[in-house]
């Protein structure tokens, strides 16, 4: 039997397990009438946004597909693969978010029984996202393999699947990120700082928009981000099959294709087992909750290593491939732990940010940004070590398959990340529904854990993005005919491309941060207007107009996501045709390097500011309502668009530009450039 059938069956098993998790969540109690009403409002807003976003993306996909189809060196098979990749990415995001918006109210109801019940419902709700991403991803690639592996242009067709996934992801991540952080910033600055009311207070008109944003940004957006990382890492490894044969690490082209799919298949089985190992007692302690999630992810990592070894043994590949996979797997775990250290209030770096809040917002922002910059050191060292080890063990093929090692446990890793927005929503629903303080204490514990896992997930996503983008860039050099050592900094085209690539992530961040700022400006003014004009709103006798904030965020996010997304698609095409293949190679290297550093800095600074606020809210440095707390809220609002919009979107940016270069490689091969 063709080993790809095993991968396809495993993908089906992953989707079956996602269905099992979904049915488990849907069987749970939906809670009181008030909980159901709040959850229904979140569901309505999230689905409305995603449906409108996908309609816009449909136009983009059709236009790009037509362009790809009429380029002689690419053709309509490439166009078809592109459309298929876009559909798979959209389906994974839609399925995952659909469950998250149904799990939030059920988590609030489950938390009334016990902390463990709340964790089970929220984590399994997030698990649907994780298993849909890996299941749909590996099934999609298996379908492409069976359809085209005998086609002479197979290695030209399959990268287009990744292009489709990345094209959807950049807009989903940027649009969702703009939505969620504009709403969050507006709700916090007016509610907490100006009015002194609690987070998620039902009197705040931006609260429902904030809840919706958690789902469209941190569930659908993150799912699209990691879906493209997952499939792009497999595609990059497959396209480096000639390098693997030349290095002697595999015996044939087909084995080089089988290995990444088999390793990914083993990761799905390991992730399913890992999900079942997540359980906790009923004490709302961060250590116990974090230990429960770590038990699931670490167990999945160990099992993945075992399955990868079996795949390599059965396919008779060189043992060096296993060590390359292990290097990526360990690097991913270490990056997650380093992110946790720099962003969790359990450790000194974030507590130092809380301490700085005693002297105002200025010192809060300075200390948090400093922490974000320092946090770049561990992940870059870990990635660098993984690259060197993987190359020494299995050449460039080893670097690519190390990325698969890092992403192989995505089923459970993404579950821990998608769990966060579900827990956050449930805490807000408890607050709005006026449930007893002990229930809020449980959901606060789940929410605090969600902040930590979200920060860890972002670190993992950024590390995997850097390794995946590098693997795609290496695949591009092989496809376009650039030999080892030809990307010289003494070549003016390479140097020019390097500088342009290094600049682009900064421009992208500026555009997305500005978009959040403009949208938040509108939200703040709307919330202020409602407090000013609606009689009895502050006293709680009148209901705010939630729908107006939802509408403002929806329209603005969809409008603002277009420019940075199109820039990311167009830039590598222009650079490739002006500077030629080597200039584009330099461009990709510059973008990957600065994109990686900026993404880590922004994500970890934002996570640190967020948890510094949480540490003060636990009663430290004056607690809620104190001057230190107000300063920390300002720091959190500065960090929100950095950690949930610009930083995560950079992951997709560097991968998208690399996969576009790989798709265009047949067109650029032998083309010297216009200058």
Quick description:
The protein has 675 residues and is mainly alpha-helical. The protein is 84% helix and 0% strand. It has helices spanning 3-26, 33-70, 76-111, 115-148, 154-195, 207-239, 241-247, 253-276, 286-314, 319-343, 348-356, 361-374, 377-407, 410-433, 437-480, 492-533, 546-560, 562-617, 627-668.
Count all strands and give the number: 0
Helical stretch count?
A: 19
Structural class computed from helices and strand pairing: mainly alpha
Q: Please indicate the percent range of residues in DSSP E strands (runs of 2 or more).
A: under 5%
Helix content: over 70%
Low-confidence stretches: none
Q: What do you see in this structure?
A:
By secondary structure, the protein is mainly α. It has one domain. The protein contains 19 helices and no strands. The radius of gyration is 24 Å and the shape is globular. The chain starts with a helix and ends in a 7-residue tail after the last helix. The model has no long low-confidence stretch (mean pLDDT 87).
